[in-house]
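Internal ticket #5521
Category: modeling
Description: The requester needs a full-assembly model to guide mutagenesis choices. All entity lines are attached below as received. Residue total reported by intake: 490.
Assigned to: D.W.
Attached entities:
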Amino acid sequence: MTCGDVRLEEYLDGELGEPDRAVVETHLASCAACSAELAAVRNLEKILRSVPARSIPDAERFVQRVHAGSRSGGRVWIGLAAALLVGAVALLVRPPADRVDVRAELASYAARPNSAAEARLRDAGPAAYPVLEAAMRGSDARVQFAAASLLFKLADRATADRVLAGWTPRPEGNGGALLADTGGDSTDIEMLPVAVSALELQGQERWAVDVLRKLQWLSREAQGRVAGSVVTLLKHENPRIQKLALDIADELDIEFPLAALVDLLDSPELGDKALKVLRDATGKDFPKDKDAWRKAVLKKEAP
Amino acid sequence: MSEGDAMVDAELVLKFKGGEESAFEALVRKYMTDAFTFCLHLTHDAQEAEELSQQGFVSAYRALRGFRGESTFKSWLYRIFINLHRDQIRRTRRSEARLEVVREETRRRQEAPTAEESSMHASELSDVVQEKVELLPARQREVLVLHLYQGLDYHEIARILGCTYDDVKMNLSLARKRLRLEMKEYL
């Protein structure tokens, strides 16, 4: 048994039955690396569990509120009243839309994407769009991408499409800046359509590939959507986009539908790369024989 | 969760379906602390956690007559909390605001550590743990919280989240890897 076969975390979590547990223990007895790994995970668990438990501030009030909510119109009414109050206060202190300093909010967002700036720009509405569009023609890549991100989040689809179509490509590229921090939360998956659209723009590929690479780590849902987008791009009519999609497929560290690559095997430009990706992913060594690869891929992907 | 516990729950559910309203209150009292703790780990905010857990029980009250007992009451209840929390994130995009709050807090702490803060290692560590757990991708956070703080096994977590045993295993492992990396200075 190699270290890679050892079901260490299931062992730690008490998920293994007697025979499997004994197998792990036998391996641990002779493997210092796995023993150290187990100790490290145990230590992490100890620290994570050290967070003190919190009890409900007022248990009787909690029960009463559930009781009241169960018999009212579908909400815990005190919570609703509190929310309304907070909303009313927020309305009172919120500046009017025409007083939002769009440039300042954009600069704040470009320095670090933040929901406060985004909310103020949302309040400003379509009045903010021309400023954001103008910022996309500036020379600062971070501001450009911040403006693009905000337009995609806030503007209607027609505006976003128009902006994208008119985005003048820059020959020197963009330095790989990111529209937003990825890897934080599953809402970042909203970056996916922006990244896919940006792939079609000369000069923005590096950024787009960066985003896709990061998005795949967010969640299973993100992985599925990234894989789906790459499959769509592999069928794109533009060979340049197909090539980019193939490069991304090569880098993906997730389950990817390999059948999408088999059709590229007879492409003069992309066949060699497709063959390499298929060989790396399956460990098989067929030549460019589409039938053989279809069978191999089907076998690998069968449940 | 023991079989006996599940049987007590099943009896209370039956009593409630038979018209005994107090049976539901017994279920609320039994699970409210666990529910609040669970929601606190999801939301990182005591007031939000209290409202989310209350709303979850209210939803449970309304849906309980249709509960067919195909899973345990506890799994079913936790699924309600998870779904409500996901809806809340989708509806209000709170997650981004929450992330920003966490980042702001971190920045503030890093910029101006007071003497009191620097002497409160345990409290600081607890804050760091909560912050790092909070920043995990949603599915990893859900799996970790159900495993670590609710003590549920992989199969039960899979039932609650509507995913497979292997999904639970993978997400738990990813969460641990990420936390080990993020918290290496504390390990």
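Resolution: model delivered.
Comment from assignee: The first helix of chain A runs from residue 8 to 12.
Ticket closed.
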